[in-house]
Design goal:
Number of strands of chain B: 8
Largest interface: A-B, 70 and 51 residues
Helix content of chain A: over 70%
Oligomer: heterodimer
Structural class of chain A: mainly alpha
Strand content of chain A: under 5%
Distance between the termini of chain A: 38 Å
Shape of chain B: elongated
Radius of gyration of chain B: 22 Å
Number of helices of chain B: 1
Helix content of chain B: 10-25%
């Protein structure tokens, strides 16, 4: 139970993100099957079976996620409030979860291969899936305008599922279409559906933002507002890719249209999942409109973000608190931050000492130099003038060594805690493992850059890792209140995340797009530029 | 290494990287907007009315208020049923002078569980 409490916050966001993703895939698949595939003039029996198979898989995954969430949340509620099971079972989230689980299993039953009934019957469980999700959204807990907010949330989620959840099915359809013309027709029909979905999604999203964010100042002054702005930016990135698709279908070279559409589709799915993860992260934050006090002002952001020379002098290890975990616990016990709200299992936060801040800034700035160097070398390598620049992934070794030495200063080799003792601490162990992972990343990408791996999926490890890390950076660590220091740190994480997502997917497109597609050359310049910019942002990272 | 196995390695690496990057996310959004007694306030006893207002609808039946007495003993307070949807009310009676902590845990209508603590002092009446 204690372990479940420790990871409860992590599990909640994970379950929410996974639930939203699988819900979109199940509902998007159902809409695609009914409104795109069934109306196709071509014989589409094979395609229908493929869609049904993926709808079934998504519904099963959704059911598993819902069951896990309901069980974990019920267990936490029961144990933390010493509540009888009967009382727990009456909670709204249990009812919502049950609706979602029953609807998901209904979808599975209606999509088994032996059934021959019409597919419109799937729309009812699809609506129930959306309803169960809305029942655990911000809208049901609002005091004012509850009914319209519930309606807008339902529209927002249904439109997102139709568009983003329909994209993988478009890829399946393109791959399985009997002729290129059929694939083109399916793409054109999906484009129309996507346009309507985008209009509904954006309109409902705008109205929800008015209710939950409320003002421009709240956009940059609160975690919720900043995450909404991030979602809008990623939405813009998706629209940009959509526009490239649109142009491609109309004016692209006939020989490579389908191959290009598939590759753009992959990137859109990846960025779409990032948007869904951002949305999951939003559901775990209090709406900006509720946090009227202690917002970060534009002046404070400007003061923190304005360029200054990097810190190349580190404080001594002796200046840092000996045991940061004990210091954190002590700060919490004093109760200095006890007006905050926490999830069960979470501890209080402690403001870092000036020495700790300087230590962290020094770490970020050196990491920035290494990453900036990698980005610039990758740019040179892409230009094809300096073949030695292709070895830029080897700089990851420097980053790994730096992480190993500086991420846990209280441990070996810098601090008094011995090497073997550190293996018992999961957090330190994770840092050490990450240092090893960076080495693995270096080896993978170095082999790709130097031509040792010319084809195959191994080439995609680097872009996928970068894109995933960017996506997950958006879901990590938010303050429930308006802790200014945390929010300012978060504001510097957001550009890093967006740049990482862009770098990852542009590298992916460079590797995957057919050679005759001109966009490939733009992508080849874009990702090294994004990596260099990540270095610049890191170089200007400040904690004071 | 076989190509298939290499792909598996890539997937494992991805999963591990994913696990690393999700660092201690917070999840909840019932935020305490105001309270009586307020944080670190001094209030005269022996009877102390308690009122907590949140930013969202609260499931009062599945929420808890616990008073930690100066001697460390815990007392679960009965939550009043006649309160607005965003408020929890209770009455702590017979409190002697000393330092108390009011621990709250709420279930918001959207299923999020949140908790917090309000230290306050009771002064002799």
């Amino acid at each position: 139970m204690a372990r479940l409490l420790q990871v409860f916050g992590f599990l909640s966001v994970l379950f929410r993100g996974a639930t939203l993703t699988f819900q979109s895939l199940a509902v998007g698949g159902i809409v695609f099957l009914i409104f795109i595939v069934r109306r196709s003039q071509e014989d589409s029996a094979q395609l229908q079976q493929a869609c049904l198979r993926w709808i079934r898989r998504s519904a099963l995954a959704l059911a598993v996620m819902q069951i896990s969430y309901v069980l974990a949340n019920s267990l936490i509620l029961r144990e933390s409030a010493e509540m009888p099971l009967r009382q727990v079972l009456g909670a709204n989230f249990v009812l919502a979860g049950l609706i979602g689980i029953v609807a998901a299993f209904t979808v599975i039953a209606l999509t088994v291969p032996t059934r021959s009934t019409g597919y419109p019957g799937l729309l009812l469980p699809a609506a129930a899936i959306i309803a169960s999700s809305v029942m655990t959204s911000h809208s049901v807990a609002r005091l004012d305008y509850r009914a319209p907010l519930v309606a807008f949330t339902a529209l927002h989620q249904a439109a997102a599922a139709t568009w983003l959840g329909g994209l993988p099915y478009l890829l399946i359809a393109i791959r399985r279409a009997p002729a290129p013309d059929a694939a083109r027709q399916l793409s054109a029909r999906f484009s129309q559906l996507a346009l309507v979905s985008v209009a509904v999604l954006a309109s409902a999203g705008l109205l929800l933002s008015f209710a939950y964010v409320g003002s421009i100042q709240a956009v940059y002054g609160t975690s919720y507002g900043a995450m909404v702005a991030t979602k809008v930016l990623l939405f813009g990135l998706l629209l940009f890719l959509g526009a490239l698709n649109f142009q491609l279908v109309r004016r692209g070279p006939a020989s490579s249209i389908l191959a290009s559409l598939k590759r753009f589709g992959e990137a859109e799915i990846g960025i779409g999942i990032t948007v869904i993860l951002t949305a999951a992260s939003l559901t775990s934050l209090p709406p900006a409109a509720d946090l009227a006090h202690d917002r970060v002002s534009a002046r404070e952001i400007f003061a923190r973000m304005s360029p200054r020379s990097p810190r190349f002098a580190s404080p001594a290890v002796q200046e840092l608190p000996e045991d940061i975990y004990a210091a954190q616990k002590k700060a919490f016990e004093v109760g200095s931050l006890s007006t905050e709200s926490y999830v069960p299992g979470q501890t209080g936060t402690r403001l870092n000492t000036p020495a700790e801040k300087a230590w962290s800034e020094y770490n970020h700035h050196w990491a920035g130099i290494i990453v900036l160097s990698m980005g610039l070398l990758a740019l040179l390598a892409q230009a094809g003038r300096f073949s030695w620049a292709r070895n830029w992934p080897l700089a990851f070794f420097g980053l790994s060594a730096f992480l190993f030495l500086r991420s846990d200063p209280e441990t070996w080799p810098l601090g008094p805690v011995g090497f073997w003792a550190t293996l018992a601490d999961p957090e330190i162990l994770l840092h050490r493992f990450f240092a090893l992972l960076v080495i693995a990343l270096a080896v993978f990408e170095w082999r790709v850059q130097t031509g040792r791996v010319a084809s195959g999926r191994a080439r995609l490890v680097f872009p996928a890792l970068i894109a995933v890390s960017g996506a997950l950076l958006l879901t990590h660590s938010h303050s429930l209140g308006n802790l200014k220091e945390e929010l300012l740190a978060e504001l510097s994480h957001i550009p890093l995340a967006i740049l990482a997502v862009t770098a990852g997917w542009s590298r992916w497109l460079e590797l995957r797009l057919p050679s005759e597609n001109q966009t490939r050359n733009v992508m080849a310049r874009l990702w090294p530029l994004c990596i260099a910019l990540i270095g610049v942002v890191l170089l200007n990272y400040r904690e004071m | 290494m076989q190509p298939g196995r290499r792909n598996h390695c890539a997937l494992i690496l991805l999963a591990v990287a994913a696990a690393f990057f999700i660092v201690a996310p917070a999840a909840a959004h019932a935020v305490l907007l105001e309270s009586s007694p307020s944080l670190k306030s001094a209030i005269s006893g022996p009877d102390v009315p308690i009122k907590l207002r949140f930013n969202v609808r609260i499931d009062a039946l599945r929420s808890r208020l616990t008073l930690i007495h100066p001697d460390g003993s815990a007392q679960v307070l009965e939550i009043s049923k006649q309160t607005p949807a965003d408020t929890l009310s209770a009455e702590a009676t017979g409190l002697t002078a000393g330092a108390y902590r009011l621990r709250w845990q709420v279930l918001a209508s959207d299923g999020h569980i949140t908790r917090g603590e309000i230290p306050f002092t009771v002064t002799p009446s």
